[in-house]
């Protein structure tokens, strides 16, 4: 059963169904509960009560939550509101209450919890058949209980677990009532009415199939289970296993990026655990070379040391790896693989475990360990795409967890519906905070006043546009003309990634499809040197075209502007937006500078200064701009950006980003508030090679040399230009 | 000697001089060092090494600092730069190195430290006589080694301590060289050339007299000491004791506010300790009913629970009570008064003690204590002015230190040269952060690119102006026409302060001089109620005038705008500044709303929502504005403000500020993002009484009743208006 079923094979399907029928029969003997929480785990938990502090705490927290629910009248309102609104939040609260009450019913054996669930299900059984499309259902697939089906899937996923916990205690008549009036029509609604979502290779699809599959296990309905695993057509082209195949690259990278993987992992792991407990022969935790384990570790690596998910694509920046969605994944991976003690860092911070067998196991491990080894954030490249050939995401780090530099470059695929037009963009962190930011998404999660908590118009008109990212915009238009389907057709090309030498790490990628007739190639290196406070980033963005274009390279710096070494015209009494569309309409033009030599731009953030020093000359323009134009509802954060503009056919933006100096207002002490770098020049811009020279204080005189066509790390390069010999080995070299 | 000498009395002066002559003689026998570090303390410290962890750590830190200095060549550059520049920072580094080397010389007895100080002093003795006014000396009193004399005072205060530590070891010839070429000319420069500063009742004056007085003790020069204590004319009208008399109110409040007291306490305590060690009979720690103790506690109370000083007047917001300046004060107050264990919270956070006898004592206490009692931030009113009759500052708090609401209202005197035109302004904190902010000052401390680290032009043109504060601006002009001398002539009037009832705390104050012909009276209450998440603030700002004026009330909220319940016109493609002067030129006009009923304005910050709900109606305008106009150097922070505008003669701004709801993006949970308050009305606006009604969800229907003329807390009030009887006791009453 472990092999992929995408190329449908009727014999295998028939075999699978036979196997299912067999295993189902044997499982029919299994005592309930038997989804995520099992009968055996309940026994173990009962035996451990009072001896495992974190488990006890989590159990107490569930008790206090449900006790509070028991005090209040049950309310199952007619659905009316979108996200954040009263009825929306009430139905969310209801499934959480039932879910936790179910667990407590099992662990404590107290009937009051069962009665509570029964009373609530009675009301749902009355309400649900009366519902049609939700009145607030806009844009996305409307549900019945909720404005989007997604929430309704989550409702079922929790409620079926609650039902599983009390089903043996319920009367046959009640069981039949809930099956007939809730579960069957809801599953039918998902499988038939929402068949497109059901078969979608997307995190919304995962929620749907997980909820249906789990309902199948509980009701003994093999049709539900099989379709959940293999898709409506049972051909393995969709369903849970196809999602595991296609949404993750072989390295475990989730194609929608760090923010969404957190959410996606929840149903992936919940359903995995239910499969594990019902169909052990499927070896789900071994599936695709342990893709579930890789998926969790990949998710953890796409965080910064403060735990925040790197906010590429649509992302809410407040989300960290403490998100409750990861509790299950962490518990299950710890228990089903190698009990990795580093995961206990996360468990400790989460300060909560799942009320499951693995949750008990991880809580015991935390109690037993004397010192948890520090979590290792490392330089790592993730490939994108099911086969790992859709480009990727590179992450380069330096320094320990307390104050780590992290550089992220994105050169993968579009990332489905939540993707941005941001190929070759980068983000930079230092001091446990963002220094060069990605805007993330324009959304206030669950805030009713902000378009019901949904993605805002400005998410499309600004946050997704190329100019909202730290990558080159051509002719003030977004990549792929801002059309998702066009972007989804191709991907960037991984060119080089090297992190062996801590003093000189680099990555390099190309993009040839984002703009017609324009080839782009970005190389970024993190260079450490004893002459400097901290590692610096060298950034070489090479563009080739037959035609002249306007190239804009934005830097969304975080902090307060301190200094530029060139004159600029500032718009101090009135100001206007820069452009009319493609995101430019959201940028206020605050100043325009015309540098005549290498530009230095310095800002302050926290205890340091940061400078971008770039190879400008007469002819370049530098915009000082600020997000917030064309925003009548004040939906955008008013944050600053520098944009370096060039008018050219072939062009190289060569910059160094330097963290420097000390700003200590408490000790009233400031040092080195000027950049060490004074001169950045492109020595050679040719088809096969790019050479950059950087000069600065303390006799800094470095050459960065890039082989543009040959990325064999073993190749030796030697070129002579203007009577100087440049020699290096591998794709990118540095000579100091 | 304890009595005040402001009314000079020649007999007392003569007596003082006699006493001095006597005590000096006895001290002549005291072994050096004998300033802040004493000979006896050195013995005790030597005996304790290795047994008091925090003291050992502080000592090690000094060693590693000085060892590093010993490795490098001594450099005493010709002064060239302003704050943040190389020579400025170098001279600061030099005195720190000498100061710490002196202490190490005493404690370790190692000669290398003495040699280091000697070599450095040799260079200063050569350089100093060659210097005239500093080339960067602008605006403020220029020094010789530094651009302002202030830094030079600090240099002397440290260097004389270093000299004291090695003087017995030095040859008589070296001693004479330093006395003749450094100390005497420098003291002469301070006392004669800068006599105006020397006699100033101001923190700069304190640094100067402390450095001169300490030099006097070391050199046995009673002229220096007496003038430092009693002023140039020895009449007690200036000098250290007069500063203790006049810069602090009887409750210990420092007239320049929280930010500057931190800085001022440093020389106050350093000199106090030197006086204590040299003239025990002066009983300096008992002086003026223990004003030094009160000054420290007042400084600690004008912080928020995150340790940040409440940034009224010119203040850098990064400054917290961890500032090293407070280490001495904390150590000395702990040792010389009642060993208050709550102070150990601060000592623990400072993670450093002074290398003095009291430093050793406090480090021992920290080592001995098993559990430190939590520091108590309390609701408290500080009076302002030497006699406590110049108005004051009220602070009302609710909740424990982990998430405390704090409301601050300012109704004191101008606060000398760092004062702002901000009478009756307020600040509000919650969630360990600012919610309604005071801008603080426009300054980047020690950042050379930002006007040498000095106060920026925008500090005068914006930060000090009335419209930069949360108080009413009349006719778009600042209070007192923005003229400091006029503001300094008067002060606001305390009217009521009550914090006994935790459910209903309030304060009230009046201002009659800020605008000619306009009387202002603001009352603010913190009201707790079981119907609400958290205490709310009710804010009643009553204005009386014979003439029609434009009244603007700004609210500098921190967070992201979420919602208003009225239509507004937003300036989305181009925007302009609101006005031409008085700070309005720095405000971008982003939208204008015209409410026709009670206005609700909601924003989001952290895990909560906040709303201001205000008694607007047709005729009011509400500006949405943002700081940052007329700012070609990008010196200002671009932060938002709502301004409610009214055109009236007599008027009442009545508002409630409500923290409400829950925003939890990690748990994807949002609740109550709308304010509970829906209707705020002024029921009665009369000379003697103001009555406000507030209505909202859950049948909230409250009356807030203010007696405008009688502030006797025992008075009973009963009035009938529109057939309703209103009855309460005391200045402000609430009826729910």
CATH topology of the domain at 380-683 in chain A: Beta-galactosidase, Chain A, domain 5
Unreliable spans of chain A are 1-10, 16-29
Mean pLDDT of chain A: 94
Main sheet of chain A: which strands, in order across? 7-8-9-10-20-17-16-12
Gross morphology of chain A is elongated
Number of helices of chain A: 18
The rounded Rg of chain A comes to 28 Å
Q: How many DSSP-defined strands of chain A?
A: 28
Task: Note the gap between the termini of chain A.
Answer: 56 Å
User: What is the CATH top level name of the domain at 380-683 in chain A?
Assistant: Mainly Beta
Sheet having the most strands of chain A? 8 strands, antiparallel
Task: Report the β-strand fraction of chain A as a percent range.
Answer: 15-25%
State the helicity of chain A in percent bands: 25-40%
Most extensive interface between two protein chains, with residue counts: A-B, 57 and 56 residues
Oligomeric nature of the chains:
homodimer
Question: Can you tell me the CATH architecture of the domain at 380-683 in chain A?
Answer: Distorted Sandwich
Class from secondary-structure proportions of chain A: alpha+beta
How do the helices and strands line up, and which of them pair or pack?
2 copies of one chain form a homodimer.
Chain A: H1 10-28, H2 39-48, H3 53-71, H4 86-108, H5 111-127, H6 149-166, H7 172-193, H8 195-198, H9 203-219, H10 222-230, H11 240-246, H12 258-278, H13 287-301, H14 325-336, H15 343-350, H16 357-368, E1 380-383, E2 392-398, E3 405-411, E4 426-430, E5 433-436, H17 457-463, E6 473-474, H18 484-488, E7 493-498, E8 504-515, E9 518-527, E10 536-545, E11 549-555, E12 560-564, E13 568-570, E14 574-576, E15 587-593, E16 599-605, E17 608-614, E18 621-627, E19 640-648, E20 651-660, E21 662-664, E22 669-671, E23 677-685, E24 689-696, E25 700-707, E26 716-721, E27 724-729, E28 732-735
Antiparallel strand pairs in A: 1-2, 2-3, 3-4, 4-5, 6-11, 7-8, 8-9, 9-10, 10-20, 11-19, 12-16, 13-15, 15-18, 16-17, 17-20, 18-19, 21-22, 23-24, 24-25, 25-28, 26-27
């Amino acid at each position: 059963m472990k092999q992929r079923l995408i190329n449908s094979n009727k014999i295998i399907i028939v075999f699978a169904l036979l196997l299912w029928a067999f295993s189902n029969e044997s499982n029919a003997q299994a005592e309930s509960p038997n989804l995520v929480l099992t009968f055996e785990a309940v026994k173990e938990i009962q035996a451990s009560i009072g001896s495992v502090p974190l488990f006890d705490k989590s159990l107490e927290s569930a008790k206090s939550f449900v006790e509070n629910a028991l005090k209040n009248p049950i309310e199952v309102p007619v659905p009316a509101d979108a996200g954040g609104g009263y009825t929306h939040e009430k139905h969310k609260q209801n499934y959480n209450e039932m879910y936790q009450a179910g667990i407590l019913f099992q662990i404590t054996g107290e009937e009051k919890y069962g009665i509570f669930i029964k009373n609530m299900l009675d009301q749902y059984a009355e309400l649900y058949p009366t519902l049609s499309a939700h009145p607030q259902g806009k844009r996305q697939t409307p549900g019945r209980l909720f404005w989007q089906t997604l929430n309704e899937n989550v409702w079922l996923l929790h409620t079926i677990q609650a039902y599983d916990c009390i089903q043996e205690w319920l009367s046959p008549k009640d069981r039949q009532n809930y099956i007939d009036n809730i579960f069957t029509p809801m599953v039918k609604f998902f499988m038939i009415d929402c068949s497109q979502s059901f078969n979608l290779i997307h995190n919304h699809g995962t929620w749907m199939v997980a909820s249906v599959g789990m309902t199948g296990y509980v009701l003994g309905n093999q049709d539900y289970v099989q379709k959940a695993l293999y898709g409506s057509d049972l051909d393995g082209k969709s369903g849970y296993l196809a999602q595991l195949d296609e949404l993750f690259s072989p390295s475990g990278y989730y194609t929608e990026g760090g923010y969404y993987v957190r959410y996606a992992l929840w149903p992936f792991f919940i359903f995995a655990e239910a499969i594990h407990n019902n169909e052990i022969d499927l070896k789900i935790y071994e599936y695709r070379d342990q893709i579930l384990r890789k998926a969790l570790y990949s998710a953890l690596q796409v965080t910064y040391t403060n735990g925040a998910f790197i906010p590429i694509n649509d992302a809410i920046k407040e989300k960290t790896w403490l998100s409750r969605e990861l509790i299950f994944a962490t518990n299950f991976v710890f228990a089903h693989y190698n009990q990795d003690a580093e995961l206990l860092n996360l468990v400790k911070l989460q300060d909560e475990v799942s009320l499951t067998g693995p949750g008990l196991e991880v809580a015991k491990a935390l109690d037993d360990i004397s010192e948890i080894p520090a979590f290792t954030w490392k330089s790592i490249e993730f490939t994108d795409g099911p086969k790992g050939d859709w480009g990727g995401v590179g992450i380069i780090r330096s320094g320990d967890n307390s104050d780590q530099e992290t550089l992220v470059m994105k050169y993968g695929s579009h990332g489905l519906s939540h993707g941005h037009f941001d190929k070759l963009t980068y983000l930079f962190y230092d001091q446990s905070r963002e220094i060069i930011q990605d805007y993330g998404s324009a959304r206030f999660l669950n805030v009713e006043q902000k378009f019901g908590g949904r993605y805002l118009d400005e998410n499309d008109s600004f946050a997704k546009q190329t100019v909202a990212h730290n990558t080159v915009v051509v002719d003030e238009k977004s990549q792929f003309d801002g059309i998702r389907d066009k972007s989804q057709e191709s991907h960037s090309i991984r060119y080089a990634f090297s992190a062996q030498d801590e003093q000189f790490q680099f990555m390099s990628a190309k993009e040839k499809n984002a703009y017609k007739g324009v080839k782009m190639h970005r190389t970024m290196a993190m260079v450490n040197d004893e002459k400097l406070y901290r590692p610096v980033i060298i950034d070489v963005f090479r563009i080739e075209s037959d035609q002249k274009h306007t190239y804009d390279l934005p830097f969304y710096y975080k902090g307060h502007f301190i200094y530029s070494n060139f004159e600029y015209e500032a718009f101090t009494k009135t100001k206007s937006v820069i452009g009319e569309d493609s995101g430019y309409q959201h940028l206020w033009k605050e100043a325009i500078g015309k540098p005549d030599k290498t530009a230095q731009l310095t800002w302050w953030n926290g205890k340091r200064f940061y400078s971008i020093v770039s190879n400008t000359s007469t002819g370049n323009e530098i915009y000082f701009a600020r997000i917030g134009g064309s925003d009548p509802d004040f939906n955008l954060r008013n944050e600053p950006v520098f944009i370096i503009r060039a008018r050219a056919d072939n062009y190289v933006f060569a910059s160094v980003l330097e963290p420097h100096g000390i700003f200590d207002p408490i000790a009233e002490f400031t040092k080195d508030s000027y950049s060490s770098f004074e001169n950045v020049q492109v020595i050679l811009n040719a088809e096969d090679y790019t050479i950059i020279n950087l000069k600065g204080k303390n006799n800094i005189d470095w050459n960065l040399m890039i082989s543009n066509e040959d990325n064999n790390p073993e190749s030796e390069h030697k070129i002579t230009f203007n009577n100087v010999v440049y020699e290096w080995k591998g794709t990118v070299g540095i000579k100091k």
